[in-house]
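To close the section, here is one more complete example, presented without commentary so you can practise reading it yourself. The ligand is zinc ion.
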Amino acid sequence: MKKFSKSLVWAITILLGISLLYSAVAGLTAQDKEISLSDLVAKINAGEVAAIDIVDASLAVKLKNGEELSAQKEAEAGLTETLRNYGVEPAKLKDVQIAVKSSSGMSFVLGVLLPILAPVLLIAFFIWFTGRQVHKGSMQAFTFGQSRARLISPESETQKTTFKDVAGVKEAKEELKEVVDFLKNPKKYLDIGAKIPKGVLLMGAPGSGKTLLAKAVSGESGVPFFHMSASEFIEMFVGVGASRTRDLFRIAKKAAPAIIFIDELDAIGRIRGAGLGGGHDEREQTLNQILVEMDGMETDARVIVMAATNRPDVLDPALLRPGRFDRRVVLDLPDINDREEILKIHMRNKPIVDEITLRVIAERTPGFSGADLANLVNEAAILAARGDRKKVEQQDLISSIEKVLLGPERKSHLLSQEEKKISAYHEAGHALVAASLPHADPVHKVSIVSRGRAAGYTMKLPSEDRHLYTRSYFLDELASALGGYAAEKLVFNELTTGPHDDLKKATDLARSLVTRFGMSDKVGPMTFGEQEEMIFLGRELGTSRNYSEETARMIDGEIKRLMDEAFERAKKVLTRRRETLDAIAAVLIEKETIEREAFNTIVKEKV
Ligand code: ADP
Ligand code: ZN
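Output:
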């Protein structure tokens, strides 16, 4: 559209230019006031005319007062003869200087040819112009198929990443050192007849450093790194993905040794045929092309394909066959030591005050991914800059934890007195139930300042990293999730829309307990719902049902029982500790936020 209007402006400019030129040229010949021959004769007889220039059939008349006029005569007859026919007085005519001039070549050509040539030229120009556009377009159609891979060349110092930039993930690094060694000394491996992996699949939660690690492999081995996100393979036109794939592999082979990194492999590598409506042709074609390329690659091609996914469970088994992505590297979320290391890496080039203890931050951030931590450090730097400080302080980091976790504080979101009271009791309910049950995570902070989408929040963090969760933990969590709802009901005997998010989360948790973890005695040790997902237009429609109506009823019954029991437990705690609940709510109304220590004091004081 933009292009079209641009060429339109061009065309109009040119058109204007030509017509200006034309009128200027035409003006050369007829810029004077035209008079009839009889008028001219009358003027001669009156003795007003000084000179007449004859150019073909036109007469340029110069009057004695300096005025210039023009007139036309018949082309065949001579001027004197014509004038005489009009009754000019011969005596007067003698006073007039008459000069015959040949028509000037230039003005003739322009005056006569231009009106004919201009449209022809214009049309020719248009044909040429549109032709050029079409040519450009066809070049574009040609580049459709070209890979859009981003390249990090080994010479680039700014983008160079090494294993030093990656903290934690020790096992993954060990595995990948082998790949680095192969890229550096392929001969050693080939001589002994060893088959080198063609594909390495990096699996891990979003932000766990998959891209970073792949870049580090390329940086360590000093080979170019071709980066492409799987979703970029696919465009509107069928076949583009496949040709992009072909192109990417062709370029990489030329640059060998090299690494091809395909991000979000699950976007194209999902189990084929799992989509509704006949599957997604384009996705399958692209996937097939990747498989073809990987199979066709010689062992000595020295191109290693690394791919990242956070959903290894949905990948097409064909991708995981030997000779394809047969190396699988798992990246775990960082534990407390790793988190400290990651923080250190990201604090490296930031000015900090001396008395920062990153350990404290690492302790308070269980469940954070590497990307979350990088984000946290950045937020802290922004906070420091906003406060016009030159160095990042501990408090900046601590404040950023909540920001990363829950989104920015929304101080402008003002609550009315009544809303404030309800919010305070709601959050106090969550916190008190959690604090009163033995297996729930300890409360770190309670607040009625809204953050992100939450109106208020109770921040609970596990005291250490968890890998296994027990049933008692889940039951206590379920009860504290309903603590807000229970408090509202107990105190105000009324309900608001506040807890709807809590209810959804709690119900989801209860459903998982029954259908995924086998934690309901009545339903027993079984999972329900197919793992295979339905995809329609790129959206997951949820899991399909692989159990009977009867079982469905039983599952629903169990979920309801779990929810009811959790609600009863929450209500019992709050009724028993009503005084404590009131105390917490009172502090919240006054101060809006209670930190861990203050909270613990209140809870301990009033048992
Ligand atoms: P993924 O590809 O797994 O989603 P990325 O590799 O893109 O995650 O990680 C995003 C950012 O998080 C990285 O650029 C880096 O700054 C930071 N990061 C993640 N993991 C680590 C780690 N182990 N060590 C240092 N930084 C990390
Ligand atoms: Zn709540």
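Once you have examined the tokens, check your reading against these statements. The two ends are 72 Å apart (CA to CA). The chain has four domains: 32-103, 150-331, 336-406, 417-605.
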